[in-house]
Amino acid sequence: MIREYKPEDLNSVMTIWLQGNLQAHDFIDPEFFKQNYDLVKMLIPMSTLYVQDLGGIKGFIGLTENYISGLFVDQNYRHQGVGEALVNKAKQRHNELLVHVYKKNTAAIDFYVAQNFDIVSESINEETNEPELLMRCHVEHNVKIGKCAL
């Protein structure tokens, strides 16, 4: 079940955040994520968060308006549709989604391409000095228009 984030979810979300970053970004010094842990913990509640709750938090997506500020899935629940469900939740709320992905994180790039994201540009992340891609998905919402009698 995907639901809105609650304050009591914070520790589970942060555990998934740290483990996910350490696993997906082995090209970045692990100390970078450990040093940013407290800052992220403070900022998380300022984003719009949705969690996949399957008798415990198995993944989450953080949104700052239409920008995906984070998408993380517990390693034991990857490749089971959790990430796709979370992205679809975001797609229900926005006409366009944007996300930055490290160029070396090919699994994430492949995931977003499968979710109909396109690569828009490439830049260097100022904090890590690593190349990253800006990806965008245009979302078409089907709106049913009823017939009106004049």
What does this structure look like?
With 150 residues, the chain is of the alpha+beta class. It has one domain (2-138): Gcn5-related N-acetyltransferase (GNAT) (Aminopeptidase, 3-Layer(aba) Sandwich), CATH 3.40.630.30. The protein contains four helices and seven strands; from the N terminus they run βααβββαβαββ. It has a four-stranded antiparallel beta sheet, sandwiched between helices. Helix 1 runs antiparallel to helix 2. Residues 1-140 form the N-acetyltransferase domain.
CATH architecture: 3-Layer(aba) Sandwich
- Count the helices. How many? 4
Count up the domains. 1
Mean pLDDT score: 93
What's this entry about, in short?
With 150 residues, this protein is of the alpha+beta class.
Core attributes:
four-stranded antiparallel sheet; alpha+beta; 150 residues; 4 helices; Aminopeptidase; three-stranded antiparallel sheet; disordered C terminus
Give a topology summary:
Elements: E1 2-4, H1 10-24, H2 30-43, E2 48-53, E3 57-64, E4 67-73, H3 82-93, E5 96-102, H4 106-114, E6 118-124, E7 131-138
Antiparallel strand pairs: 1-2, 2-3, 3-4, 5-7, 6-7
Helix pairs in contact: 1-2
Protein name: Putative acetyltransferase
InterPro entries: Acyl_CoA_acyltransferase, GNAT_dom
Domain N-acetyltransferase: 1-140
